[in-house]
Amino acid sequence: MSIPLMNQLGVVKRNIVRADAAVVDHLGRLGSATVHEAMGRVGLLKPYMRPIRTGASVAGSAVTVLLHPGDNWMLHVAAEQIQPGDIVVAAISAECSDGYFGDLLATSFMARGARALVIDAGVRDVRVLKEMGFPVWSKAISAKGTIKATLGSVNIPVLCAGALVNPGDAVVADDDGIVIVPAADAVRVAQVAQKREDLEGEKRARLASGVLGLDMYDMRGALERAGLKYID
Which residues contact 143 (CB under 8 A, 6 or more apart)? Predict the structure, then answer.
């Protein structure tokens, strides 16, 4: 039975079950759009979550953090729980766009082996973060700093940008968005996503040869029944 959220404040769970690393890397190669479709169009964070630099593409296991408005204390606590290949996923207990994360925390996260940060709030020191090559997806960019005064929690279930994230879940993030894959379902999703990718490869080859989508998807009959007329 899950523990009510109010009883999980001030908690750090040290031992979590992470999705298989090879499967996570496979999901990352397939990309967020394909994985989202393979999951049945679920698990996608809200589209306001954007990378601070384009071209970044990562996948990892979630270390989750619950923060409070204007307080980044628990990000420092979370750093200790990071293992190589993890992505820190930070949710906020109430809406806030302050700059919770900058180059110093990024330095700490990188030293622990983190692959990225996903945070439903703001970040700052963006120029330096880009130079460091540390990928970040955030709701906002803000120079406004934070305090360290209120306990949150680490490695509990959180709701981040509309998606439920459990510690250890697979996180796939790129220019198209961020998708969360439950750790227990990662193998199946990777298999379905690979089949989709293979099929799309075949379709891409046909389209490149000049075949029209109208014919490949057998759309002409449906268009005619819908009343489409061609006029010369």
Answer: 99, 124
Q: How far is CA 54 from the centre of its chain?
A: 15
Backbone angles phi, psi at 38, to 5 degrees: -65, -30
User: pLDDT of 193-224, one tens digit each?
Assistant: 999 999 989 999 999 999 999 999 999 999 99
Which residues neighbour 174 within 8 Å (Cβ) at sequence distance 6 or greater?
A: 31, 32, 51, 56, 57, 58
Write down the pTM of the prediction.
0.91
- Name the token pair of 62: 């979630």
In the chain, the amino acid numbered 188 is R
DSSP SS3 for 4: coil
CB neighbour list of residue 47: distance below 8 Å, 6 or more residues apart = 177
Integer Cα distance of 23 and 8 in angstroms: 30
